[in-house]
Amino acid sequence: MPRTQRQAARDGTITPEMERVAEREGCEPDRVREAVATGRAVIPANHAHTALDPMIIGEAFATKVNANIGNSETTSDIEAEREKLHTAVHYGADTVMDLGTGADLDTIREDHLDRSPVPLGTVPLYEAVKQAGDPAALTPELLLSVIEKQARQGVDYMTIHAGILAEHLPLTEGRKTGIVSRGGSIVAKWMEAHGEQNPLFSVYDDICELFATHDVTISLGDSLRPGCLADACDEAQYAELDTLGELTRRAWDHGVQVMIEGPGHVPMDRIAENVERQRRVCDGAPFYVLGPLVTDVAPGYDHITSAIGAAMAAQEGAAMLCYVTPKEHLGLPDREDVREGLAAYRIAAHAGDVANGRPGARDWDDALSEARYAFDWTEQFALALDPERAREYHDQTLPGDNYTDARFCSMCGVEFCSMRIDQDAREDGDLAALTADTDLDDSPASAVNRPPVGTHDGELGRTADDRSAPDTPAANE
């Protein structure tokens, strides 16, 4: 039977996935192996996901970004979901979670797995509820059946809401927004209806055995995450976190890789506390945070309110950031929302890597700054996080090929461009000349800290040497 990445790492084996990860991170393979062996990093790589290009999630490596996609009962079909997947990979998502609750879940999931070069995550509880028809009708047997099916299909990691216990529910009574986790609310309703303990907690060892068989990484869900600033860091949130620490160690005993999901809505002054507490309680398992949102007052702009918190969490040691789109709290994201959310979170992740002094991370910034000072617009666009958007905005006010070499933009114009004035002064000998010496080809930066982050086009390759984003629906017609 194939081993999990954790089992192989603990045996001293460097797997092909670890070799590939080391190449992408610009480090030695044994550093990857050691991080996976200690549980401080995970390589979500289901044995059955043949289209996967392996990646790593861990505090010691470049900060990663997840994009949530998925249909609902009222919105989206397989073509729209395929386009969302393409958009997510195109704009630099390191992993994608399919949170679909609508029709054709199996068909869409299998289509994603056939196409996606990045790890695919799911929440099997959602499909189980659809099959049961009502949260109260769930059974442990149904939950295990759905989990096993998704594992066989090739899902790389699954959110399991096993940490919310019956004794935690009274702790939520003083909250302003109650239980805001979709999975948490489903499990809470089941426990209230049956007067029994969380079924996912009760069959947790069985889940771990299934995950060990297929090498599915367990993402322990934060069912009691705060849904507003007033509920942050309360007794309910931290009681569940203590349970997640226990579940982490139990999964490790089964040879299963583990990461921990985190809040939610947290004021800026308590983000460091959250990251440090998770690190201590969960023995350094990778922390995967949603945001956190640092204010509650900006519906329609929560990709910004959350990216502020995400950058701070990344600096403190969060390993992966789950993006938030402008539609958060308001509706199902479309293609443009996915693009906006990923841009905000790629910025947050990169800012965290720069602040933490990741090898070569700032080389990208330096190279773009040098191109900007030289008025090399073509190079600026090529180095931009979203090259298409950068060119679009520039050309809105200075269109045409004549302006791609211009020593100004429409912000200041010719006479008031500070960089042009500075260059002229240096050419006149009043100031020393500046040199541009950043060579990104020699940079030790990881793949996610090198341009371009996304903008991958073409048909999905079937080998590790030929990876690109899945085709858009139009390309398949």
From TrEMBL:
Q: Where are the annotated segments for Disordered?
A: 434-477
For the ligand (substrate), the binding residues are N68, M97, Y126, H161, S181, R182, G183, D222, S223, L224, R225, E261, Y288
By its UniProt entry, which Gene3D superfamilies does this protein fall under? 6.10.250.620, Radical SAM ThiC family, central domain
Q: Which residues form the signal peptide?
A: none
Q: Which Pfam families match?
A: ThiC_Rad_SAM (PF01964)
GO MF: 4 iron, 4 sulfur cluster binding; phosphomethylpyrimidine synthase activity; zinc ion binding
Question: This protein's superkingdom?
Answer: Archaea
Its keywords, alphabetically, are: 4Fe-4S, Iron, Iron-sulfur, Lyase, Metal-binding, S-adenosyl-L-methionine, Thiamine biosynthesis, Zinc
Give the compositionally biased regions (Low complexity). Answer: 434-447
Q: What is its EC number?
A: 4.1.99.17
Binding positions ([4Fe-4S] cluster):
C409, C412, C417
- Compositionally biased residues, Basic and acidic residues: 456-469
Please share the entry's free-text remark on the cofactor.
Binds 1 [4Fe-4S] cluster per subunit. The cluster is coordinated with 3 cysteines and an exchangeable S-adenosyl-L-methionine.
Q: In which pathway does it act?
A: Cofactor biosynthesis; thiamine diphosphate biosynthesis
Q: Name the reaction it catalyses.
A: 5-amino-1-(5-phospho-beta-D-ribosyl)imidazole + S-adenosyl-L-methionine = 4-amino-2-methyl-5-(phosphooxymethyl)pyrimidine + CO + 5'-deoxyadenosine + formate + L-methionine + 3 H(+)
Matching InterPro entries, A to Z? ThiC, ThiC/Bza_core_dom, ThiC/BzaA/B
Broadest EC class? lyase
A Gene Ontology annotation in the biological process aspect, one of them, is: thiamine biosynthetic process
Residue sites binding Zn(2+) per the record:
H265, H329
Task: Give the protein's cofactors.
Answer: [4Fe-4S] cluster
Q: What family name appears in the similarity comment?
A: Belongs to the ThiC family.
Q: What does this protein do?
A: Catalyzes the synthesis of the hydroxymethylpyrimidine phosphate (HMP-P) moiety of thiamine from aminoimidazole ribotide (AIR) in a radical S-adenosyl-L-methionine (SAM)-dependent reaction.
Protein name as annotated = Phosphomethylpyrimidine synthase
